[in-house]
């Protein structure tokens, strides 16, 4: 097993899940026609593959961090997505055996449009769960910051101030709220589609829509739980022994993150030679 598979296994993500996603990514990587015909599938796969390197750092996480990561639903999300990707990969190979742009290839895409859309939604939800995971991993001083959309080149230990962490929590919470609203809109679309179908119509399409709705419901529930955990985080902020000499210094926090800080202490601050010091909340 690779280092990534071992680290991901800390929270129960299987090597089959990781390989299923990678296999479908490789299929699209090798076929430009597939990327052009199914651009949304390719986009979400690319997002997942760009961020999946972050899972290497799960092996260094403490229990509190792992608890928050699990709350995102990333374990089940990655495992289910891997199984779905493996199945879709095999189907795409069969559907496009005469070429993606062939008559039969295009016909198969049309005939199986509901299944393709269901997989797009699953990939989108998994990509956003992974975004949540990366966001949580980067909140903590003892974590190595991962540069998104870049190859893993090495580790850089970053010690963050409480104000920086509070700002990141606020930004992540806002992003999650946006994703939750988007999932709600998608779910409403699926619900309307189901209402427009009669029981006598294609049961396969109904099954695909039911599964799509279930994926969206799970994502909405999980993102809500994760947001509640982040909102409960309260940080302590301490500044002591600060000397300012002919410089401009801000000590404290911006007003936008006040709700994330439980206590603020600023003592022993010295300024001279026309220094400008802002203390408290700005």
From TrEMBL:
InterPro entries per UniProt: PigL_N (IPR031348)
Domain of life: Eukaryota
Domain Azaphilone pigments biosynthesis cluster protein L N-terminal residue range list: 4-104
Pfam families: PigL_N
Name by which UniProt lists this protein: Azaphilone pigments biosynthesis cluster protein L N-terminal domain-containing protein
């Amino acid at each position: 097993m690779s280092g990534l598979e071992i680290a991901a296994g800390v929270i129960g993500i299987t090597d089959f899940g990781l390989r299923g996603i990678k296999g479908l990514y490789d299929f699209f990587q090798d076929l430009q026609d597939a990327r052009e015909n199914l651009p949304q599938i390719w986009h979400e796969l690319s997002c997942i593959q760009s961020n999946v390197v972050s899972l290497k750092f799960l092996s260094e996480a403490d229990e509190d961090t792992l608890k928050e990561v699990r709350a995102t639903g990333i374990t089940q999300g990655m495992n289910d997505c891997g199984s779905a990707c493996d199945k879709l990969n095999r189907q795409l190979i069969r559907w496009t055996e005469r070429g993606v742009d062939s008559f039969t290839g295009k016909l198969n895409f049309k005939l199986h449009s509901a299944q393709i859309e269901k997989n797009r939604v699953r990939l989108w939800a998994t990509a956003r769960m992974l975004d949540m995971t990366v966001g949580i991993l980067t909140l903590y001083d003892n974590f190595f910051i991962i540069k998104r959309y870049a190859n893993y080149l090495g580790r850089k230990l970053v010690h963050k101030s409480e104000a920086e962490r509070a700002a990141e929590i606020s930004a992540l919470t806002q992003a999650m709220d946006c994703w939750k609203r988007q999932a709600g809109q998608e779910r409403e679309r699926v619900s309307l589609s189901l209402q427009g179908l009669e029981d006598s119509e294609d049961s396969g399409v109904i099954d695909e829509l039911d599964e799509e709705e279930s994926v969206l419901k799970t994502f909405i529930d999980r993102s809500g739980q994760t947001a509640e955990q982040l909102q409960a985080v309260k940080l302590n902020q301490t500044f002591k022994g600060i000397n300012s000499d002919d410089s401009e210094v801000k000590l404290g926090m911006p007003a936008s993150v006040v709700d994330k800080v439980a206590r603020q202490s600023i003592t022993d601050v010295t300024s001279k030679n026309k220094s400008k010091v802002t203390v408290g909340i700005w």
